């Protein structure tokens, strides 16, 4: 088996396993066309098989691995259009929802949106910032009366995180990301539905440009195999 390690302070063991495997793919420790054992992976990471299976299922949903029943799993070759598809779905869902949040949200709901934006500005720690970012998008969708859409978007964001590093790896700062959300929230609070929809679209299109420009980690060279 390759040399893999669990990340420090994971939110769950399944998340830690998924991250360890993703890191192994990015580093070339795990390569396509090789079947890896769930049992060996559990022993290597020092965890039980249950979180390994759960973590691999998440990666399979993200398109990073294929589960081979009673055999293990294989890494799938990267596809350039994964992020494009995900952001395309979000563009279909979130800008119209931002309009509805502006036009239909109550004063109390708008106050919660303002508080979510302020929470993004209040933290300088990247993990906390992304949690606040997700919370803002979630409360916007729920204010629009779209709880199922909120659940879909949250799952898509989890998949995006599994596919590679965030846009801060491309030089985008937390302050810049916060600034992209400000016109969305300002338009919502002003009850300007058209402006809210336009600002959300601009934010997601900027994210798509950075993520698709970065792409997924390239496949490891053919000669590189786990020891």
Structural write-up:
The structure is a single chain. 33% of the residues are buried. The longest helix is centred in the middle third of the chain and has 23 residues, at 82-104. A 3-stranded antiparallel β-sheet has the order 1-3-2. By secondary structure, the chain is mainly α. It has helices at residues 13-26, 38-45, 49-62, 82-104, 107-122, 126-143, 147-163, 174-189, 193-214, and strands at 35-36, 65-68, 72-75. Mean pLDDT is 87; it is low at 214-227. It contains 9 helices and 3 strands; from the N terminus they run αβααββαααααα. 65% of the residues lie in helices and 4% in strands. α3 crosses α7 (147-163). β2 (65-68) and β3 (72-75) form a beta hairpin.
Q: Let me know the CATH homologous superfamily of the largest domain.
A: GntR ligand-binding domain-like
- pLDDT below 50 for ≥5 consecutive residues: which ranges? 214-227
How widely separated are the two ends? 6 Å
How many domain units?
Answer: 2
Major β-sheet profile: 3 strands, antiparallel
CATH class of the largest domain: Mainly Alpha
CATH topology of the largest domain: Four Helix Bundle (Hemerythrin (Met), subunit A)
Spell out the helices and strands N to C: HEHHEEHHHHHH
Number of strand segments: 3
Class by alpha and beta content? mainly alpha
**What's the gyration radius in Å?**
19 Å
Residues in helices, as a percent range: 55-70%
Total of helices:
9
Name given to the CATH architecture of the largest domain: Up-down Bundle
Could you say which overall geometry the principal axes of the C-alpha atoms support? elongated
Strand order of the largest sheet: 1-3-2
